[in-house]
């Protein structure tokens, strides 16, 4: 298993659409959390984006997870960062 950090940058022109899709997005995140795939997630306080930490087999699994997120087909964000992360404290 590997940890990955994902930073989303919200398309501010699509705020209404993002808010409409957000309940389905959060339900999906809850499913991932229950499955042990999502470690932490949340929006930035200025609502310009979000940070998510995943625990998955590899980048291919993470990209599949992202493709299935309701935010993806709604096109309400851009992927600002996707990188493997090596935690030193807190998650191992």
Please characterize this protein's 3D structure:
This protein is an alpha+beta fold and 92 residues long. It has one domain (2-84): Alpha-Beta Plaits, CATH 3.30.70. It has 3 helices and 4 strands. The longest helix is centred in the first third of the chain and has 20 residues, at 15-34. The relative contact order is 0.32. The model has no long low-confidence stretch (mean pLDDT 96). This is YCII-related domain-containing protein. Belongs to the YciI family. Residues 4-85 form the YCII-related domain. It comes from Kribbella antibiotica.
Shape: globular
Strand content bin: 25-35%
The total of helices stands at: 3
Helix content: 25-40%
CATH superfamily name?
Dimeric alpha+beta barrel
CATH overall fold name: Alpha-Beta Plaits
Protein name: YCII-related domain-containing protein
Family: Belongs to the YciI family.
Organism: Kribbella antibiotica
Pfam families: YCII
């Amino acid at each position: 298993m590997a940890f990955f950090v994902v930073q989303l940058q919200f398309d501010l022109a699509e705020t209404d659409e993002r808010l409409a899709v957000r309940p389905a997005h959060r339900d999906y995140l809850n499913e991932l959390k229950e499955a042990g795939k999502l470690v932490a997630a949340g929006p930035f306080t200025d609502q310009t984006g979000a940070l998510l930490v995943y625990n998955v087999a590899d980048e291919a699994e993470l990209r599949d997870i992202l493709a299935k997120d309701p935010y993806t087909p709604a096109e309400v964000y851009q992927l600002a960062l996707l990188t493997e992360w090596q935690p030193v404290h807190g998650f191992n």
